[in-house]
Amino acid sequence: MTGKLPDACLDQLFRDARTYNAWRDKDVPDELLHEIVDLLKLGPTSANCSPARFLFLKSPAAKERLKPHLSEGNRDKTIKAPVCTIIGYDLDFYEHLPMLFPHTDAKSWFAGKPKKIEETAFRNGTLQGAYLIMAARALGLDSGPMSGFDNDGVDREFFAGTSVKSNFLCNLAYGDASTLFPRSPRFSFDQMARIL
To answer: By C-alpha distance, which of 39, 41, 136 is closest to 81?
Structure first.
């Protein structure tokens, strides 16, 4: 049985949640990153394909490797964040379908079909990146998702010799609310949705 979440939960996940650019000086323990992954992996993906791959950069050395590939506006806030996550997607995801989706031969849906592989990996990997943000919020962290980096450079630096491509970045930490500006406007229902 499921029911509507209390307002306090909806506030934490959506209404009061913000994209942060500055962080409190508080460590994000590895155990919390494990909890995030254990939650996000339960979100739906087509045929349970689960193509997202996550690199949690915590050490100064790892962040220094990322630094040259960041746009200038993203560099300082990312280096200062306790964790920067590289959200990638694995183009060989379909090789794992016999284990992830065992009741049918789903691997054959993708083998030899590069356009379908790319579309499926990117779409579902992006979904899983969104689940990362929501799982982090649910566990009390704040996030700072962003583009503004050199994907090819990140792929060479962190995913060379693999079938993984970078999608977007997301800083994870305890946000400094004193640096937030007012929430930007959002569309009304009628501006973005219709019921047919």
So the answer is: 136
In a domain, 184, yes or no: no
Measured distance CA(196)–CA(185) in Å, rounded: 26
CB burial of residue 74 (10 Å; 0-12, 13-18, 19+)? buried
**Domain of 161?**
19-176
List, for residues 145-185, the tens digit of each pLDDT value: 999 999 999 999 999 999 999 999 999 999 999 999 999 99
CATH number at residue 102: 3.40.109.10
Domain assignment present for residue 29? The answer is: yes
Give the separation between CA 165 and CA 170, rounded to whole angstroms. 15
- For residues 126, 127, 130 and 132, what is the CA-based torsion angle, rounded to 10 degrees? -100
Per DSSP, the three-state class of 25 is: coil
